[in-house]
Amino acid sequence: MDRRGRAEICGQLLIDAEAAVFCYDAVREALRAPAALRTSNSPGLRAGTANLLGWFPECAATSIPLLMAFVVDEALPGVAATGVVALGLLGDSAAVPFAESCLDSRSPSCAGPPRSRRPGPS
Q1: Contact at 8 Å (CB) between 38 and 70?
Q2: Which pLDDT score, from 0 to 100, does residue 122 have?
Q3: In degrees rounded to 5, what are phi and psi of residue 55?
């Protein structure tokens, strides 16, 4: 590969990297008010929103309390588990005791009936 070919490849890599950063920033901005996490009737949307929160550790200060409340209130165990995984992705040691309690089925914070139910089809 000649010098010109390498320069073209480097130019394209720079464009791709800038696009990736732009997309990351756009998603992070949209997640500042993730209403879908608490209000959606769609389990997939709630789980997807919880998952996305886990990929933005710079937003951990607001995401961790939101995810903890979500996990406690979520009616579907698989969706709640996505919230626990998202907490782990954030990497904050303050969330470890809560996540560990969710692994213990005897824990009142994560086991048993949820505190609230979402409206939707039965």
Answers
A1: yes
A2: 38
A3: -95, 10
| Cβ atoms of residues 66 and 53 within 8 Å | yes
Q: Give residue 115's Cα distance to chain centre.
A: 21
Q: Could you please report the per-residue DSSP string of 19-49?
A: HHHHHHHHHHHHTTS-HHHHH-S-HHHHHHH
Measured in whole angstroms, the distance separating CA 32 from the mean position of its chain's CA atoms is: 12
What is the pTM assigned to this prediction? Answer: 0.69
Residue type, 26: A
SS3 113: coil
Provide block-wise average pLDDT over 10 residues at a time, the chain (122 residues).
86 85 76 72 89 89 91 91 93 90 65 44 40
